Amino acid sequence: MPRPLSRTRSRLLLLAAAWTAGRALMLLLLARDGTAPLGVGGVGREVHELYARWYGVLAQGTFPPGDRLWQYPPGAGPLLLSPGLLPGLTYFQAFVALTLATDALVTAALVRAGRRTGGSLTGAALWTAALPLLLHLPLARYDVQVTAFAVLSLLAVARSTRACGAFAALGALVKVWPALALIGLPRGRTTRRAWTSAAVTAGALLLVLAALFREPFGFLRQQGGRGVQIESLGGTALSLARHAGWPGRVRYRYGAMEFTGPHVGTVAAVSLALTAAAFGVLLLWRLRARRWTPATPYDAAFAAVLLFTVTSRVISPQYLVWLLGLAAVCLTSRHTTQRPVAALVVAAAALSSLAYPVLYADVMACTWTGSLLMLARNALLVAAAALSLHRLWTSTTRSARPGAGHPAPGRRRETASTA
Q1: How far apart are the first and last CA of the chain?
Q2: Contact (CB, 8 A) for 382 and 348
Q3: How far is 11 from 7, CA to CA, in rounded Å?
């Protein structure tokens, strides 16, 4: 039954007001970056210095040669060049303006999905209200743009599997992880079409980038030396070990604060092994899954990114932007199993803003305050990943009762044409 028009309109107006107020607050915090009580500050420095420097190199037709900080696939190049499309603004101003525009696009897509039959505006509300929990960080990183590719990919599943694959490929060429948006697609024609579209899109864009730029795959040389970042799960274990006498130290390496010292290599190897195990669990889930609802592709992508996040050697605070975007997509559907998981991720986002930038000095110094803060944040993420996988597994692998379940996204037209 459709919602009353006036009630829907009032909700949309409230959502628009909340979005405007929240983003105004984020801009105000960005303007006051580095002042009390925002901790170490320097959140915007990555755009001012690093992105702007890369822009100058990319504008000359080459990816940053030999730059140890350049660790991104070639699709990141056009994205970092995009602020040049806005004349009359500094690079920083144009970058923030495009990030806000992308944020508005994500919100609009979530609203549209929520107004479909069986949809909910809760997803748009979560994105609107929870993103400011990360303070001004989302405006000074390009993770909002990357998240937009994953969000658009998932929301396109029900209407166009080819568009779904294309958006996932575009996102994967910027930061790899949006490829996980395709992991929960129903087996059969839907998956084949989406992956074929993704492969064609990725191949075509790589050919164009290889023709226009030099060193498009130079980023691969910078990945192997990554260590254990202080905000990762392994980093939390090493931070607590410092209080037990472990002699390791924190150093700036590869664009992040990482631990160095005895046994760090072992911790990094364990993290990689856990990531491989997570991939195996997801493959096993696909083999065992029997029931798909309209929300299963959303739930599976959310669970997959959570698993790869908590097992990573690096958990930067902007990773929470990804998780909030995927949680919002899940909540656009009334069939999702991930509502309690979304609540855990929102709580983790709030603690992340305390860890960086507010109390980052404590986190770097491995004080008890910093160590316990990271323990609490990462415990929430581990709980969210475990609960997400459990709810996905139990909802899709159990035997369906006669008449139970819902047709999978993208299969409605196939069923009709087969009939």
Answers
A1: 28
A2: no
A3: 6
Nearest to 281 by CA among 198, 361, 397: 397
Side-chain half-sphere of 182: how many Cα atoms within 13 Å?
29
How many helices (H) and strands (E) in the chain?
Answer: 17, 3
pLDDT digits (tens, 9 = 90+) for 290-324: 999 999 999 999 999 999 999 999 999 999 999 99
CA distance linking residue 116 with residue 160, whole number of Å:
15
How confident is the model over 58-98, as pLDDT tens digits? Answer: 999 999 877 888 889 999 999 999 999 999 999 999 999 99
- Predicted pLDDT of residue 394: 96
Angstrom distance (rounded) from CA 222 to CA 271: 18
Work out the number of other CB atoms within 10 angstroms of the CB of residue 327: 30
Q: At 145, which amino acid appears?
A: Q
State residue 418's pLDDT score.
Answer: 31
397-403: long-range contacts (C-beta < 8 A, 24 or more apart)? Answer: 397/285, 397/288, 397/289, 397/290, 397/291, 398/290, 398/291, 399/290, 400/290, 400/291
Question: Tokens 């998981």, residue?
Answer: 341
pLDDT at 1 over 80: no
DSSP per residue over 178-223, as a string? GGGGGTTSPTTHHHHHHHHHHHHHHHHHHHHHHHH-B-TTGGGGGT
